[in-house]
Amino acid sequence: MTVPTAPAAEKGADPGTDPGAEPPDSGSRHRLTAVTGLAALSLDAMASVAYGPEAIVLVLAAAGGHGLGFTLPVTLAIAGLLAVLVASYRQVIAAFPDGGGSYAVARARLGRRTSLVAAASLVLDYVLNVAVAVTAGVAALTSAFPDLHDHRLALCLGVLALVSAVNMRGIADSARAFIVPTAVFVGAILVLILVGLFRDGPVSTAASAGHASALADDATTVGALLLLKAFASGCSALTGVEAIANAVPSFRAPAARRAMRAEAALGALLGVMLIGLAVLISRFGLQPVEGVTVLAQLADASLGHNWAFYLVQFATMILLALSANTSFGGLPVLLKLLARDNYLPHVFGLRADRQVHRHGVLWLAVVSAALLLFSGGDTNTLVPLFAIGVFVGFTIAQTGMVLHWCRERGPRWAAKAALNGLGALLTGVSAIVVTVTKFHEGAWLIVVALPLLVLLFEAVHRAYAGIGERLGIGRIPEPPHRERSLVLVPVSSLTRLTSEALTAAVSLGDDVRAVTVCHGDTEDLAAGEALERDWALWDPGVPLVRIPSERRALGRPITGYVQKLRATEPGTRITVLIPEVEPDHLWQRLLQNQRGAVVAHAVRRDTDAAVCRLRFRIGSP
């Protein structure tokens, strides 16, 4: 069993006398720069420009053409919140350079339980982001090629397998692989905006021709509740802003400075794209139509229905599918921190040579695949569950930063606390509005899953605490002392394996006994007598003990014998050494009878004896 202490500190080489020198084996080449960090950890946020403005337009369309006139003001409000969030998370990065984002902030300033709520919200959001991103990307592909619609689930699983495989090679490799798609998408959107600003009107409406309008005909007023709902829906464009702060340890040194640069670049690019698209929506007077995205209409109106239009669509499709990579960059680091604090199994804290937390990557891939199977690859099934968790995390992080500035003070602490307080208020209201408006569409699942995940963290923590108490972690143990050692070796016949096992046993223990289980039928009695005769002729210097058993069982008679020895010889350390053949080929294990596994399981379950499984390689003939 794993000892319930924090995983070992990550290895670092001695930098020597030159403080600016990079340690030769520090794994720096497998970490992120500001540019590669932007590609690896911002795809979720970047891709949100494909559905954030549309979410605003669809809500405002309920108020008719008059409601669409508020698209730009609502977007400007979201951009203002984006600026607050970026400034806040830059402060989080500087104050908590070990990563973890809202979990780290809450753990330090808001208490253990609140930090677990933040962690649970982030875990749920990251998992849902993978499923939503993959299904949205495949939906864009099947929209262009309708013949693939019936194969969307297989396509979703294929894209998920591709992104998972790339991330198993390391976050730096995944970043390098996704730099080009990210650059093409951002470049295409910026060109679309720039060209559109010089247009007097739409150059083409071919994309929306023949599609029914989603605009309400009889609405003329815009209420505060509608604007608030539009603001909350459009805030889906802010998902992913926190990912860089969660994965600071993945950056090259100085990690915090590079992460802050990446966060600022993300905020600037995302803000420019959101505001630019909103300006074009108002400039061209676009209306939402069924079956065509707002971004597609903007590309058609600005660039024309030509190769540039299809380039924007293809780049959007690719980036939507690959935006799942944000979760693969941020969640494994968060799971590592939870494992360090004993809220998850310590296996999530292990890291491979390429700075990969492979168990976190594999877990994320498996759970995301289960969500894809549950939804059948349908985006609309998953979207109502999305973005609630991230707003909870936003609110907790900024509330924690308010307390951080109030305690730490420092230059301009009051202004910083006010900024974070405003952000906490806005994101808190957005979280409530999104949850209420989407509750009956499936958001209730998140409301249920969030506390269940917190309870799971608590259960793991209690288990580790109990194990730690029994092991006496933090206390000086008694000095070691020698006790009599008895080694039991289960045997069924005389072979070279028996000789090897007894040789190992007499090297380990003061007393060695071979044990064999004999059942009551005639065949087994005859086999037992034959083994005793052969044993006497062989005379290995180790006694053979026959354990009678009325039932055809193997593990229970041996554990009964161990328990009897424990009662009669309380000061003796008992070890059960189980000899097993180790075949040359994996498929040959199917030829084995698995008796060793049965005995080992029974001894571990019913006694406190040590179990040693001796693997003997027989080699090729």
TrEMBL record:
Its main location: membrane. The keyword Magnesium does not apply. PANTHER family: POTASSIUM TRANSPORTER KIMA. One of its GO terms (cellular component) is membrane. It is found in: Membrane. The chain crosses the membrane at residues 74-96, 116-141, 153-172, 178-198, 264-286, 306-339, 360-377, 383-405, 417-436, 442-460. It is a multi-pass membrane protein. Signal peptide: none annotated. The keyword Transmembrane applies. Keywords: Membrane, Transmembrane, Transmembrane helix. GO terms for molecular function: transmembrane transporter activity. This is APC family permease. Residues 1-29 are annotated as: Disordered. Pfam families: AA_permease_2. InterPro entries: AA/rel_permease1, APC_K+_Transporter.
